[in-house]
Write a structure and sequence with these properties.
The chain is mainly alpha-helical. The two termini are 31 Å apart. Helix 1 crosses helix 9 and helix 10 runs parallel beside helix 15. It is 83% helix and 0% strand. The chain contains 17 helices and no strands.
Length: 501
């Protein structure tokens, strides 16, 4: 009986992970489309100077309010996932701590803006966007609650409502002659509306947290969260310093070629974010000795991420030249060599990212700062040597090498915490299917618009056949999930409460 209950619980957990991965992916993809539409129209209507004011203002206020997002949400998710009664201790205290850290920093930033003599319109943009960024930080804490309760279906509702409303109203205002201040005000309105909607869902659909602030909890929360925040800073350096150093050593044209290739890499990262967001609360409740060991869930998450990203890495390597020409034009053909060298990172980023969640779930978040800090130092050293000689190809090689280093260290530490996994079960199917898809792409190399769908058909078909033959339980689980979601009313009918809206 106990074994049957455990198996049923595992199946339900797998369904929630798949559903929540989809919810997070929908939110990320949909919001990016809306944001890109707004920024493209804004740049065209306002020109580079006014668009530069908005871009600088957003970067400036995001930087000065960094302490509002220094890992507090990850700790909230972990602790509430383990014990939902902790919501009363963590939710309001996290919100109040974020306000206490970000509001004074924003006021100081505004004062510095005035002291440096920026014109009044730019100061207004900084003020409006600053309040909006603080509101979004508070909104992310609500998202952490949804994550802890495994109710990620609320995230696309809130995020898509914000981004699409902001884009629609912003584009309309620009068409009517509005300027950068008007768009900034609209952005603030969207952020405040989204925060209100997120709070509404927390209170009405999750739980009603006690409105009690305990100042004595602030310092312990910051102390526990600090390594995660520092790791985030180092991770940003790891992923951004190459562009800055390339701009220092080489021409704007080289930066443009590398940036075009790098954007394709960045477009795949949402897959890791989606899987990690879905699996983190489950990991937080597990250990090596629970009925479902944490290694089993870690292995399943790695397998899902590998199945989704390995073919993208192979495709980026095989079709780099025609893809760059198709997407950016023939003048960006030279950047294809950078895309080939960046392709391994597409497949290496997910295991590193998921391993970080394993470490956080087991209270070993201090490792993150050391690993990402060391990788950032290595990346800077490699770029210093390679960029002067190999330009953007050197930067691309440094990125993939450092991601290999990060993934190796992070997965090794995660396995020490979680226990061993079956690497063959994780990789054999995706590797085999990706190799055959690569062959299809090579055969249709000169017709990229035909090569991509052909490769998708080959990959999905081979992977399905392999999994059905060698891992029938995993295959049946995914097929049953897809059938239920495809059925009329299947998104909620018969689903556990944690999956329903």
């Amino acid at each position: 009986m106990a074994a049957a209950e455990t198996q049923a619980e595992n199946a339900a957990s797998a369904n929630r992970i798949l559903a929540n991965t989809g919810f997070r992916a929908i939110a990320d993809i949909g919001s990016k489309v809306a944001s890109i539409a707004l920024y493209v129209v804004m740049a065209r209507r306002l020109g580079d100077a006014a668009f530069g004011v908005f871009t600088f203002g957003m970067a400036y206020v995001t930087l000065v309010t960094t302490l509002a997002n220094m890992g507090q949400q990850a700790i909230l998710t972990r602790e509430v996932a383990r014990d939902r009664s902790r919501l009363h201790d963590y939710f309001v205290n996290t919100l109040s701590l974020q306000l206490a850290l970000s509001v004074p920093a924003l006021l100081l930033a505004l004062g510095l803006h005035v002291a440096l003599g920026f014109e009044s319109g730019a100061r207004t943009v900084v003020l409006l966007l600053g309040v909006a960024v603080v509101a979004e930080a508070l909104m992310s804490t609500c998202f952490a609650v949804f994550q802890a309760y495994e109710r990620l279906g609320f995230i696309p509702i809130v995020l898509l409502a914000q981004r699409w409303t902001t884009a629609a109203v912003g584009i309309a205002a620009l068409a009517l002659g509005g300027g950068v201040v008007s768009v900034s005000a609209i952005y603030l309105g969207g952020a405040l509306g989204a925060l209100a909607l997120a709070l509404y869902y927390v209170v009405t659909r999750i739980a009603r947290p006690r409105l009690a602030v305990n100042l004595r909890r602030w310092l312990p929360l910051m102390r526990v969260a600090f390594p995660i925040g520092i790791a985030g800073v180092f991770a940003t350096i790891l992923f951004r310093i190459d562009v800055a150093m390339l701009g220092w050593y080489d021409s704007d044209a080289a930066v443009g070629q590398y940036g075009a290739a790098y954007r394709l890499l960045e477009s795949t990262l949402f897959i890791s974010w989606s899987v990690g967001t879905a699996v983190y609360p489950v990991l937080s409740r597990l250990t090596r000795t629970t009925a479902t060991p944490i290694a089993a869930v870690f292995q399943a998450a790695l397998k899902l991420a590998a199945a989704l990203t390995l073919p993208l890495a192979v495709g980026a390597a095989v079709l780099a030249y025609p893809l760059m020409e198709l997407l950016y034009g023939s003048e960006f053909r030279d950047g294809a060599s950078a895309l080939i060298l960046l392709a391994p990172t597409v497949a290496l980023y997910p295991p590193a990212y998921l391993a970080a969640y394993v470490l956080m779930s087991q209270d070993r978040q201090s490792y993150l700062a050391w690993v990402y800090g060391g990788a950032a130092i290595v990346n800077i050293a490699l770029n210093t040597v390679l960029i002067p000689r190999f330009s953007f190809d050197g930067a691309a090689f440094a990125t993939s090498f450092c991601e290999l280093l990060t993934a190796g260290l992070m997965v090794g530490l995660a396995l020490r915490a979680a226990g061993g996994i079956n690497a063959r079960a994780v990789l054999a199917g995706p590797v085999l299917a990706s190799l055959l898809a690569a062959a299809a792409m090579a055969l249709l190399y000169d017709a990229v618009l035909a090569a991509v769908p052909a490769a998708v058909l080959v990959y999905v078909g081979v992977l399905a056949l392999y999994e059905r033959r060698f891992h029938p339980h995993d295959y049946a689980r995914v097929v049953n999930f897809l059938r239920r979601r495809a059925a009329p009313g299947g998104s909620a009918r018969g689903a556990p409460e944690s999956e329903q809206l």
